[in-house]
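Exercise: predict the fold of this chain.
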Amino acid sequence: MRVAIVTESFPPEVNGVAHSVLRAAEHLVRRGHQPLVITPAPARGAHCPPQSFGPDLEPLPVVRVPSVPLPRYPQVRIALPSRKLAAALTAHQPDVVHLASPFVLGARAARLTERLDLPTVAVYQTDLAGYAQAYRMGRSAGSAIAWARIRSVHRAAARTLAPSTPAAQDLTAHGVRQVRIWARGVDSVRFHPEHRDEALHRSLAPGGEVLVGYVGRLAPEKRVDLLAEASRLPGVRVVVIGDGPSAPALKAAMPGAVFLGRRTGAELARCFASLDLFVHTGPLETFCQTIQEAMASGVPVVAPAVGGPLDLVGHRRTGLLVAPRDAGAVARAVADLAASAELRAQYGAAGRAEVTGRTWEAVGDQLIRHYEEVLAEHRQRTRDTATATATVVPAVPTPAPAAPIAAAVLPLSVEEQPA
């Protein structure tokens, strides 16, 4: 199957959309399919390492469309209008088009797929309406505009895949049809309790403090500032892993915290496993991959009781869910778990057991089934349309010999239908 993946973000960017697209493309190659990734180009000079997967290390083709940085958040790139998108889709001749978190580049691709009559799967991953409020883009007006764009793009798709139950409910409530749930996988070999590094733990918490960590982008919508009260608890050391525009303000607000910047690969896995407690503060998560990575690392979780974390965190089983946007609630939950090593161990083990079956291979196969179903439905509609067209008898038939007239009004068989 030939699949075109049009995504708003891709490595070298580090975020949930980029990571899930990379994993999906990797799985498609390993299953013998032919993906093409179309994405905004990164900043000039950024290193874009080639991606190769499969038994023969087949290269993953990537088309990068000209882009500009998002105002106030230059790490995010916005695709400019370009003929490269249409040219890439036409040249690849995909059976299915996958729109990953479509908004700008994805919206243009949606219009093209309608024109080209290509079956499309839209994957909802980013709460853009919530982001509009977080960045004060007209507040309620900004949210309404974002939902109008989301509806327009996703209604054009044959199927929308949502990463969690709350996300699916939001989409349905705002008029998006044909919504299914497609969650995310986690690499439970890379993220594993055995990667805990006691020397790293001692260096970050030299006084034997309970090490409480956040991993992710440092941006307004993530509300990492909600950790400030917890960072002042006695016997607690907060470590922040990630970067973004909010970093300077957060360092000023939490002078006792340790800021490690961005970490990736084996180093990130070692950091996760060396934590005693993981805290996620963002109230706008449609899923939250870092929660799964913490759970796979055997680390208990504190997260807001809203959005994607509701599907991931078992309250008082794998961690604690707290009121969103409430710094006091975060601090109380951290204090409760910091006081009980036994409870942390219990929640951490339960979390690890819960996510080990959520492999990228399993969710990748689910994605392929969605593609196959949408493609089958599209082909059936094409056959039905061709059959209906073929069986229409002209109002004023053109005179012709007897035998051809009989043949002309017979419906074509399924095998004879035009593609």
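Check your answer against the key: The chain has 16 helices and 17 strands.
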